[in-house]
Amino acid sequence: MRPARPRGPRTWATLVLALSLALLLPEARTGAAEPPSAPPSERARVVAEERTGHRQVDLTLDSPALGREAKVRLLTPDGWETRRPGESWPVLYLLVGGDGDHRAWTEGYEAGLDRIRSLRNVLVVMPEMPFFGFYSDWHNGGGGGPPAVESFHLKEVRPLLEREYGAGTRRVAAGESQGGFGALSYAGRHPGLFDAVASYSGFVHPSQDPHAVRAGMSYVGLDWRALWGDPVDQRSVWRAHDPYHLAHRLRNIPVHLSSGDGRAGPLDPPDVEPDPHIPGLEDPEEPFPEDAISPTETVMLRESRAVAARLRSLGAPVTTHFTAGTHSPAYWRREFRRSLPLLVGALR
Hints:
Number of helices: 9
Number of domains: 1
Strand order of the largest sheet: 1-2-3-5-4-6-7-8-9
CATH architecture: 3-Layer(aba) Sandwich
CATH superfamily: Alpha/Beta hydrolase fold, catalytic domain
CATH class: Alpha Beta
Distance between the termini: 36 Å
Shape: globular
Structural class: alpha/beta
Radius of gyration: 19 Å
Order of helices and strands: HEEEEHEHEHEHHHEHEH
């Protein structure tokens, strides 16, 4: 899995950023089960609140699910500062990739987020994720425990924002790389939670490519089996998080999928360099095209196409945009803007 393309010299931080990668439940919002809030004694609590920019607030939470403090960045809507008790706004959860940096969307991918007119009446929530956390409560050999990423986001952050920070119950989610996986996986695991989702270069069918999960996590020094267990012995755990296998729970909401093909595209600089080599990323039975310089993005395209085909077979309202391009922020910014009418439209 490949580093995002920095504008200047490569650093370890940019390498990490780039490496990011049943039964049918009720699918209408009415009567749909949502993740329960934690009991008061186990709730995350805000330990710091800081204004960090125009309409921008950073919260520091003490999280039982993560076993440490973690950050959430908010882009607040018009009127939020003078909100009345009980007043709320629709919410866009904007999820980041494998490095989990809550600042990535506002300081790296979409620096003009606060100037987008269609978001002036939307609360944008950008939560931190533990490094390579994959938007999941980790299996950890069957023992569970930290990092419980899904519990942090959905059982701690979500109810806290709805109780205290004006978050409403109309929600959409979007993200890049692992964030794209998170948007679709959360929506599939919790039908009714989101009204639309979008993935940009998302790792949206991991059980199709368990070797890629193994390669990427091993490359950055993590125990890949701690995430969902062994892909054979714990196949049910892998599938329970995989948007492809959750597609029947996504078929009643708009889904947008986009990806490049791993070849240099129109938003790559003329001197773009190939990805660093990650041992084990390539499937010997399905080698990468010879002119692919971004193998991670090639994997993301194959997975996104598979999920799109599955959704279409179910009659789901899926849209796609598959083009030439690499696993880099310029494409995520473009695709975010492209999908924004779908996302904001679902909040009305």
